[in-house]
Amino acid sequence: MATRPPIGLPRLSRRSRILLIIAATVILLLLVGARLLDTYVDWLWFGEVGFRSVFSTVVLTQIGLFLAIGLLVGGMLAISLLIAYRTRPVFVPVSGADDPLARYRSTIMQRIRLFGIGIPAVVGLIAGSTAQSDWQQFQLLLNGTSFGVSDPEFGKDIGFYAFTLPFITWLITWLFVAIAIAFFGALITHYLFGGVRLAGRGGQFSVPARVQLSITAGLFVVVYAVDYFFERYELMYAHHDNISVGGFTGATYTDLNAVLPAKLILMFIAGFCAVAFFVGAFVRNMQLPAIATALLILTSILIGAAWPAVLQQFSVKPNENDKEATSIGRNITATRYAFGLDNVQYQEYSGTTNGTPDEINKDPRNAATISNLRLLDPSILSPTFTQLEGRENFYGFPDKLDVDRYTVNGKTQDYIVTAREINTSGLNEQQGTWINRHMTYTHGNGFVAAPANTFRRPASTETGGSDQNTDQGGYPIFMVSDLSRQGLIKVDQPRIYFGELATDYAIVGGQNAREYDAPNPSFRYDGAGGVPVDGWFDRLIFATHFTERNILFSGLIEDGSKIMYNRDPRERVIKAAPWLTVDGDPYVAVIDGRIQWIVDGYTTLENFPYAQRTPLGQVTTDSLGSGVARQADRSISYIRNSVKATVDAYDGTVTLYAIDDQDPVLKAWTNVFPGTVKPKSDITKSLSEHFRYPEDLFKVQRDLLSKYHVSDPREFFSTQTFWNVPADPTEEGGTELNSTAAKQPPYYVTAQAPGQDKATFQITSALTLLNRQFMASWVSVSSDPADYGKMTVLKLPTSGSSQVEGPGQVQRKFQTTPKVTENRTLFNNPSVTVRFGNLLTLPYAGGLLYVEPIYIQTKDANAFPQMARVLVYFGNRIGFNADIREALKEVFGPGVGETATPPEGAVPTTSPTAPPSSTSSQPPPTGGGTSNAELDEAVKAIDAALARLRSAQQTGNFAEQGQALQELDAATKRYNAAKAALGTPSAPPSAPNTTPTPTPQNGGG
Questions:
Q1: Where is 945: in which H helix or E strand?
Q2: Pairing assessment for the beta strands 775-782 and 791-795 based on DSSP bridges
Q3: How far apart are CA 766 and CA 810, in angstroms?
Q4: Which of 90, 510, 690, 898 could anchor a disulfide with 558, C-beta 3.0 to 4.6 Å?
Q5: More confident: 817 or 747
């Protein structure tokens, strides 16, 4: 019977080979060409923002790692295949006529170079492509610095764990991969060519196969031994879910007394096993490597797993609070340092007051908080801003507005601020052509601000505020600076090309540009932003990149034209500083007349010895879903707000400032990218005055503070004194115990907390007792430049009748108080939706003051929220009124907040009644029935100021109103002085109505 020849792959014709080559070339161009195109577009963008050194450093590092790991993995495989092939048996044994391996050997022999070079090349490409993403670890290894702080077990500087150890473990992983792939490559090759046979007991190995496989296995075990050595250090940030405190990070008692010694023992056993493999390569008997391998496996089970488990179960568990005390103490110390909780100022605070309403009202320390009560909720009012100040349909505002403070006419107060951005998604069908979307509607226009403690007089309760087209009550008082108006906050360049809504590219500039720029008929961009796109090559590049042929053929693109892309300020900072973790909520501010986006940047570490590993995405998520970018779901054990970044809204300039220049991680990155981060000394006073303590950092810190306010390890182990971040009580189910509602977000307010000598702009949050709704503490961090970052915790009573009600309990009282439930017109109107605004918790007069606005919104597609009522709670008393001062009077009685001076140039917190006539402003006769020339002059001055104020209200001129208020204040003081000179108690005239006359929807400034 004839033997059937081995079957190989069919031979291809010349034409087929050419077609295959062409197809492979096309696929390669599609894969590589797209990557090269994106790289070139990024190179142009980095040149625009002046960060091309960042681009080149990252790309060169990625190329270096790609080549290094590709050569390591692919090269070791190629060498392994070459050795196995060249040491194959001369006579290949066959199992019979139908030997299944024959066809594979024939195929390989026919295309030996293809397999010998192609397979290692493909494996190397895959490995290199995977490794290049870890460029940060390599650069930190080269540029790491010292922390000046050592770990408590080995005494090594934290810099070793932050910068050196991550790269070592990364390299060990790739050595494992390279050796394992080389081993299996050699094994398969020897098997195909007969060096390894499965016949017989235990199989048969040729001498070359035994030598190569034994040496390769020995190298693998050597790396294993090295890995055991460095795994000892990794215990310092090991994460444990089985400890009673839950989610503990750091070396436990069992780790220190069982696992750590086991690592050293296993390291020596692995070394012995490696020697056994090397010896077995030259000794025909393979028993020694087999015995060594069995010994390594057995000791790994007994010493590495069984002994720690026995120690944990029978020694640690029964005495866990004592056994783990040292480790818990280390964890507390490290976590406080790593998350900036080591300088927290704790104060005992009763949360209740024995003072009478009269005593509270007369205390000047309470006036600052009352005068700055924030009534406007930035997470609710975006539709209101859009309808009243959005102007054209292609303008818009972010879903979440910002809170900042500004000094207007010498008075500093909170404002709800935002930028009127271009929103091309708002274009209608007729406006949605390519030219309109990318060349006509290119930019926004204007900075919009509204005093946070003020609103127009709410709508009548009889109508429920249903007529939102005519009733202007309950809306913010807008101060607008745009191309047609200049508000009290001066803006030199109100055009906004870079913002949170500008997600698409825009083509600007050129001699014949016709950008929409009301009130100007057209506008030609003259700023530094954008990448030139006036050459045919660049037009081809961007037409391909954006898959838009109009870029190539449009006649409107000419000399001087530029293309703007990556226009979101957060995205620009992420690209310019890829080593930063960026806060989810950039905010807009006017700095020296220019609109700037301020973006907070964090330096983070995943592994810090003993510091608690914290899920960043989870702890920064709260009830503010839209308008805030969510952080990635990754764990961190160190964070610093080390960088403040600004992005110019007109030209897109990105500037990084070092706010924490002592941060070792920031120092390392500035060594990697020298000159990209400006020193702290370059921060101007006008910029620092608008810095806010960042939200995401505060959320991380308050979550950890709920546990790490405890100092005693045994108390920490019991968890009894832990706190909770409360659920947002304004959300559905938020008032229930153990609610599944989203967490309450922190709030920016201006208030005077205990220990502060003035009202400061700060971020605040309430914390409740563990699994209880009573208050545990009130946390705040100052944003004022003088004491920026100072964290204060007011600790409230946690037991007995002295416990203070928390946000959920207060919200439940708000919703069930007769004053609210009986207001059927407001809450039972089927055509109106009621929305509870942010519930603010503020320390006030020794107690806690709760303030919550209520908004109404008609059930209509074009409706928008409107202020209707304000709820106030203090000392088990509730105020409910359309006017904040009236609501406060219901709680505190007459005279509340009278020691506070309303901010000039803006409407005071109250929404007063109708304006008195000039005659009603006349003061009553003096006690003696006589007159005084000075008194008469003061009355005339008051009348003149009132007349000027009414005139300014009718025209909507805020600057004129501010001046009139100053004159009115001066005249009132003059009147009081004249009355005092007559020996008569002062009785100043009735407060004027400073609520401006309602203005058209597009003219609110």
A1: helix 933-955
A2: antiparallel
A3: 12
A4: 510
A5: 747
How many Å apart are CA 507 and CA 32, to the nearest integer? 27
Cα–Cα distance, 388 to 416 (Å, whole number): 14
Instruction: Give the chain's length.
Output: 1005
Number of other residues whose CB lies within 10 A of the CB of residue 736: 14
Is it the case that residue 889 has pLDDT exceeding 70?
yes
Rounded CA separation 842/753 (Å) = 8
- What is the torsional sign of CA 936, 941, 942, 943? positive
Q: Which residues of 479-510 are buried (b: 16+ CB within 10 A; e: fewer)?
A: bbbbbbbebbbebeebbbbbbbbbeebbbbbb
Tell me the pLDDT tens digit for each residue of 457-496. Answer: 655 443 333 344 434 678 999 999 998 888 889 999 999 9
CA 18 to CA 53: how far, in whole Å?
Answer: 42
Rounded Cα–Cα distance for residues 55 and 191 (Å): 47
Q: Which residues pair with 828 in a beta bridge?
A: none
Strands (E), 525-615: 531-532, 562-564, 581-582, 587-591, 594-605, 614-615
Look up residue 726 and give its two tokens.
């409360």
Rounded Cα distance, 73 and 180, in Å: 10
Amino acid at 516: Y
Assigned token pair, 685: 């006073």
**In angstroms, what is the C-alpha Rg of the chain?**
36
Rounded CA gap, 557 and 509, in Å? 9
Instruction: Measure the CA angle with vertex 659, ends 656 and 660; round to 5°.
Output: 125
Q: Given phi > 0 = left and psi -120 to 50 = alpha, else beta, which region is 957?
A: beta
Bridge-partner residues for 240, per DSSP? 248
Q: Torsions phi, psi of 285, nearest 5?
A: -80, 125
Q: Which residues contact 694 (CB under 8 A, 6 or more apart)?
A: 583, 600, 602, 641
- Stated as kind and residue range, the H or E segment containing 866 is strand 866-874
Tens digit of pLDDT for each residue in 198-224?
Answer: 765 556 778 888 899 999 999 999 999
Does position 358 have pLDDT exceeding 80, yes or no?
no
Provide CB contacts within 8 A for 801, sequence distance 6+: none
With beta carbons less than 8 A apart as the criterion, state whether 344 and 337 touch.
Answer: no
| pLDDT tier for residue 957 given thresholds of 50, 70 and 90 | low
The sign of the torsion formed by the CA atoms of 905, 910, 916, 920 equals negative
H-type alpha helices, 363-399: 367-371, 382-389
Structure confidence by residue, pLDDT tens digits, 270-289 = 999 999 999 888 887 778 88
pLDDT digits (tens, 9 = 90+) for 105-162: 777 777 788 888 889 999 999 999 999 999 999 999 999 999 999 999 999 999 999 9
CA distances in angstroms from 530 to 94, 217, 444, 499, 542, listed in the order given: 70, 56, 16, 14, 13
DSSP for residue 977: H
Q: Where are the beta strands (DSSP E) in 696-831?
A: 723-724, 747-751, 760-769, 775-782, 791-795
pLDDT 10s digits, 25-78: 777 777 778 888 999 999 999 999 999 999 999 999 999 999 999 999 999 999
Return the pLDDT at 246: 65
Distances (CA, A) of 363 to 68, 876, 879: 71, 20, 20
pTM of the predicted protein model? 0.84
How far apart CA 794 and CA 767 sit, in angstroms, is: 10
Q: What is the pLDDT of residue 924?
A: 36
Q: Using 50, 70 and 90 to split pLDDT, how confident is the model at 923?
A: very low
pLDDT tens digits for range 637-647: 999 999 999 99
